[in-house]
């Protein structure tokens, strides 16, 4: 991986004063969607023109985990590892991952600037028009020229829209909630992905002619609406089309938490223990309970025909 990742806290940022100068795109960037990409691409272009390193500064965990009492964890469109892989593919040099904790939340806007921009030798900051920082988000991009005290410059990226509405992580979560993964593709600029390890399942699919790879999804991915999807699996450098059931298998005893299992077309290799990436392309139907195995098999045959046609 090309991108070099630095894990930082409020107390450790000053330890990197000797790092090479950079132009930093700053934001939470959950999804690294097309709006985020506009910010990051501008930072990369600016870094090239200034002959410095390109950097992205993000935060972990999501601020809501720290600021909302009782919230234990968050679910992400792009968990940190996924975000890191995307930024690596974009050719970013540095990834600054700032730990969001109570100490960070209490920093004044000036202290945030001193610690995380000046302290990291950032020569130019690029952020979206709505980026805020410091205690209760009191710092904003309009104040940044004053807070920088001439120590670095800045660029503000205006709102990026799709169909006359702002592209945002909130909007992407909303379309995922509706199963509209095809709309998510338009906003992200790529298919929505979940990664995990193939594990042993109940092997019930084999008995009805539809063996599946049961995937233990890693990280805290945001889970789309349960249902049946046209997907492509990437494993060992190859890609294979298939159909995924994201759900609780109500025809049988059912599960409490949604599981992801994928039937790959024209595929008979052993995937147990393999790391896989599942791309979601379109939802074909909601999950439903069937009166028996024969009704389920008939529906699966219809699903397969529809999905093969989609990929054809």
TrEMBL record:
Key word Zinc present: no
Recorded GO MF terms: ATP binding; FMN adenylyltransferase activity; riboflavin kinase activity
SUPFAM superfamilies: Nucleotidylyl transferase (SSF52374), Riboflavin kinase-like (SSF82114)
CDD domains: FAD_synthetase_N
GO biological process terms on file: FAD biosynthetic process; FMN biosynthetic process; riboflavin biosynthetic process
EC number assigned by the record: 2.7.1.26, 2.7.7.2
NCBIfam families: PRK05627.1-3, PRK05627.1-5, ribF
Catalytic activity entry: riboflavin + ATP = FMN + ADP + H(+); FMN + ATP + H(+) = FAD + diphosphate
SMART domains referenced in this protein's UniProt entry, alphabetically: Flavokinase
Chain's role: Catalyzes the phosphorylation of riboflavin to FMN followed by the adenylation of FMN to FAD.
Family under the similarity heading: Belongs to the ribF family.
Organism, as annotated: Halobacillus locisalis
Taxonomic placement: Bacteria, Bacillati, Bacillota, Bacilli, Bacillales
Domain Riboflavin kinase: from-to ranges: 187-312
Pfam families in UniProt: FAD_syn, Flavokinase
Protein keywords: ATP-binding, FAD, Flavoprotein, FMN, Kinase, Multifunctional enzyme, Nucleotide-binding, Nucleotidyltransferase, Transferase
Pathway where this protein functions: Cofactor biosynthesis; FAD biosynthesis; FAD from FMN: step 1/1; Cofactor biosynthesis; FMN biosynthesis; FMN from riboflavin (ATP route): step 1/1
Name of this chain's protein: Riboflavin biosynthesis protein
